[in-house]
Specification:
About 15% of the residues lie in helices and about 25% in strands. By secondary structure, it is an alpha+beta fold.
Length: about 170
């Protein structure tokens, strides 16, 4: 049911998130810059969110064919809080490493080890951060932060919230 001629794709409707199988030919016309939903599936048997998810093979079956499962919870461009030793958590964006072009590192099991981030503020600084030191950015009240760099952090948080709201306006 899977192989070089098949592609798994996930419905992006938040109440669905089911995985569907597309032929390589059908997948080649999917615009990876736009969301994909079950109703876009050319296979009418699986073109509705109300239909059960397609049977997913055991991970061992993938290994049998020399395939590897890779998991990432944070997409490229995500606004996150990153923590470096000796520094407070700081707003940053997941971005490609200018040398490798990658933004995420995986271990041999396909689990995320770290993300390449660009810290926001002046100057913008880039580095790799272990996944355990990254959390998804959540707007907070300005009284939530406790630390010796509070004023600077809050100033950048306000600016980044404005930037985030302009860049990712809901349509």
């Amino acid at each position: 049911v899977f192989g070089n001629d098949k592609v798994w794709i996930q419905c992006e409707f938040e109440n669905c998130l089911k995985w569907r199988i597309l032929s390589s030919e059908d997948a080649s016309v999917v615009d990876s810059n736009k969301p994909w939903y079950c109703n876009m599936n050319p296979n009418s048997s699986f073109s509705s969110c109300s239909v059960a998810e397609e049977r997913y093979p055991e991970e061992s079956a993938f290994h049998k064919y020399g395939l590897k499962l890779v998991y990432s919870q944070l997409p490229l461009g995500s606004l996150v809080l990153s923590k470096m030793s000796g520094w407070p958590s700081w707003p940053s964006i997941l971005c490609p490493d200018p040398y490798t072009g990658e933004y995420v590192n995986y271990d041999e099991d396909g689990d995320v080890e770290g993300y390449h981030t660009e810290f926001l503020g002046n100057p913008h600084t880039r580095t790799w951060i272990a996944v355990r030191h990254i959390e998804s950015y959540q707007p907070m009240t300005f009284t939530d932060y406790k630390g010796k760099h509070k004023t600077k952090f809050l100033d950048f948080s306000r600016k980044e919230k404005q930037f985030y709201n302009r860049r990712f306006k809901k349509v």
